[in-house]
Amino acid sequence: MTKFRNLLTLLVLVAVFGSACDRPINIFTVDQDKQLGAQLEAEIANDPTQYPLLSETQYPTAYAYLLDMRDEILKSPEVKYKDKFDWKLKIIHDDATLNAFCAPGGYIYVYTGLMKYLDEVDHLAGVLAHEIAHADQRHSTASMTEKYGIDMLIAIASNNATAAQLSQVAGGLTELGFSRAHETDADEHSVDYLQSSKYACNGAAGFFTKLIAQGQTSGTPAFLSTHPNPDNRVAKINERATELGCSTTSFHSSGDNGAYAAMIATLP
């Protein structure tokens, strides 16, 4: 009982201190990130109506292309959990959705709508690096820590969370929005991850630039939200690229030789 009370006191103090200092708190362990990601993967696989996944055997070209892109990003020394997370990748067949997301533990999902919308391979690499950053910086479970409160924190910290509780948390991940700070952090890390890659390190900026030009910045998914403002996001991404001195030369024009367009053409 004394040990439990000490844990409770510690958690309350951490929560209060973190809130007062405006610092993100994450009571989940890295292994619990992986557990939640695996739970979400199972739920997505069992819901083909909402998440119609493309078969890897039927669309090998698209999967090979995206897996190569994933591996190129994960080669970055800036990716903290590249050897700890599984970094599985699936393509969701939904041409109407401009989205991608990466669940805790590195479970990556990319919509065909996003792939077909983007003209440059660097822009897709930027979005993928942004999503990998959300998992690598553990933004989802940090947000979940805030959402579910002290009771859940105690259960998780003491390894007493039930399967139902973990399932509840995993289910909430699909509707979880990121904070302004998390979005800015993911944008910045996308540049960090791409700086040593073959892709333009400011690739994510090109995506937002196209959205702005076409007036599609309202009513978009959470990771495309207008907070921070898309114009500001473009500026911040380019500022980070300048700060790092990394290449902003498009791989599409310098080395892709039409492979990206050819890959897109294989999609249903």
From TrEMBL:
GO terms for cellular component: membrane. Residues 78-240 form the Peptidase M48 domain. Its cofactor is Zn(2+). It holds the Pfam family Peptidase_M48. Binds 1 zinc ion per subunit. GO terms for molecular function: metal ion binding; metalloendopeptidase activity. Residues 1-20 form the signal peptide. It comes from the Bacteria. Keywords: Hydrolase, Metal-binding, Metalloprotease, Protease, Signal, Zinc. One of its GO terms (biological process) is proteolysis involved in protein catabolic process. The keyword Metal-binding applies. InterPro entries: Mito/Outer_Membr_Metalloprot, Peptidase_M48. Gene3D superfamilies: Metalloproteases ('zincins'), catalytic domain. PANTHER family: METALLOENDOPEPTIDASE OMA1 (PTHR22726), METALLOENDOPEPTIDASE OMA1, MITOCHONDRIAL (PTHR22726:SF1). Belongs to the peptidase M48 family. This is M48 family metalloprotease. It comes from Aureispira anguillae.
